[in-house]
Every structure is written in C-alpha cells, then in structure tokens.
Design brief:
Length: 369
Amino acid sequence: MISMKKRILLITLAIILIFPIGSVFAKDYHDVPKDHWAYEFIRKLSQDEVIKGYPDGGFHPEEKVAYLEVFKLFQGILEPSDEELKVAKENYGSIVEKAGVPDWARESMAFALQRRIITENTLESAKKQNLLVNGAKKVPDRSTIVVYLTRALRLNPSENFEVLKHKDIHEYNYMIKTHLVPLVEKGIFESTGSDGNFEGNRGVRRGEMAKIITLATSNVKAPEVVPPKDTDKDGNGKSFQQEAEEFLWTEAKEAFSSNYQVLRQEFKNRKTESANGKEVFTADYTLVMKNYDKDPDTVDYIKEAKEKGDPNYEKLKKEYLEPKEWNFKIKVEKTDTAFTLFTDTSNTDTPDWKEVKFQEMKIPENLLY
C-alpha cells in the first residue's frame, strides 16, 4: 500500500496537469452534489488539497480526459526516479519531439515508451488521429485506458473472465478483457460497471479519473523499475536479446490482439551481433495465435459448409478452434533504444531483409479466418 502522504504527492503530480489551474482549492463544487457517484472521491481529494476545480466554482466531472493528460497522470502515479526519466528522455526524447508532442508532455510520453506502456507504433497511430496536440477533440476511450493502465501498473493480464459481470462484455475482444480482469480484481474498476455495462467505447470522465486515481494508488503498489541496461559479462541487467524479444511480443500483441488471441512466440536459431553502431538480433520466429473462442457454427464459411452438407464441415469446425503457427524469419536492429523490425521475404539461404511493422503484415489466409 502507498501511504496517504505519498499518495497525495503522487496524485498532485498527476492532477496538476489534468485539472485546471487558476482557482482556489474547494471542498465542494456546485456541479458535484452529495448524491453524485463520484462525490466522495472528488471531495476527499479536494480536502487533501490535491485537485482544483474551475474558476466558476465547478469541477465539471462529466468532461473527458485527453490522451496526453493520461500519460502525465501515469508518470505521477508511478513516480519514476530522476535517473529513469533521464534515460527515457535520452532514448525517446527525439522520437516524441518528432511526433509533435507538446513540450509539457514530452517527458511523460518518453517515460511511457520506456516502460513499454505504449510502443512507437502506438505513438505514430496517435499522431495520425491528432491525439498529440493541445486541445485535441478526440479522447482515448475506456478500453484503451484499461490496457494502458494495466501495463503501467505492471499487472498481469488474466483470463479469469468470471469476474467480469458487465452486460456488454461480449462486445469486447480478448485483449481488452484480459487487461480488465486484474483491474477488477484489484478493485480499481467495478465488475459490473456503474450501470451494468463496461461502455468501453466512450471517453473517461474527470469524475471517473478521480476515482481511478484514488483506487489505483490505494490498492496497487507502484512498481519499482530500474532503467534497463545491457547485460554485462556477469549477467547483470537485461540483455539485448531479452529486449528484442520483449519488443517483438509487445508489437505482436499490439498489432493482432484486436482480432485474434496471441498465445505465445517461439524462437529457433537465435543470433545476436553488433555492427556499425547497431545491435542485431535474428531468429526463426513462430507466432502462435488462434481465433477468439466462439461457436464455429456462427462463422459464415463454417455455417455455409454445414448448410450445404460439406464433407469438410467437421474438419473446418475443428481447425477454427485450434491454435495456428505463423513462421517466418525476423531481424531486430537497435540503435540506442530505437528498435526496427525486418522480415526475410526471399525464402532462400540468402536473406532479403525488408523493414516492416507487424501492423502492416498480412496473416496468411490458410492460418486464421
């Protein structure tokens, strides 16, 4: 548990950027009556002089929290050391600057990349959606916040779906559900939602964020993370091979989990070397995935095979539920801490490496449907 004194400090660091500056602290707000669902969270944080309202005397609890503000919040909750922030800025400062992140948010975005809360592909996607600008109209939805928060708190995704009692939980994919489970188990998110639904497609309101902050800092110990370094001859720290494999796993889940269950990755013929200021990792790579569990008879091509009496119907039905292996050669290059992925398209003994992103790769049609 984090002490009250420390919790107030952490929350203050986060909220100072999420909630407006320019008004005095207030114990009550005209738009947060005592019967408001977030009243106790908002009032308690206000009493502790952690949050501020607007100059009009209101808190505006229904307004949505912006994308960049979320990561400033995570930085405050996790309380990284000065050394870790220094490493994060050295590793990712130029990347977030190039992405157009405003000055005030660059440190927190570099920190999010360093902690693998997001990837460079995520940052690129956010840029395309105009989420990285001041006053962005589009906001992150609850499903996105769930995934990011679980990663930030270093909680392990879980398939204990029995704890998810939301009426609409069937609408959400495997990745979202497995990341929601530990937050429900820790009491940060409710097992049914305030009205029985998860409502993962809407933004997170200011009132909700006050609640999430309070519960996250009360129920979860902020993970202590030492900035990664290469393994020396005595085996201290994290090796480049480990970093490369973590990079691949994060990228694979980011790219494919919305449509398929990403089960595991396997490697053969691993090789690492250093050349021309780069570290290089190559391997024969296997990504094991499967279709999301559902009644195969509801899948169009299987349903059609059943209706037509196709002799392959039972085979198609069985294959749909079985894990599939996707095999190809990979290469990961690291310059400082920027990772670049390549695949071999030659199918010969002489590799023809092409730079790729998992999100751009097409899964062979004979593997998954």
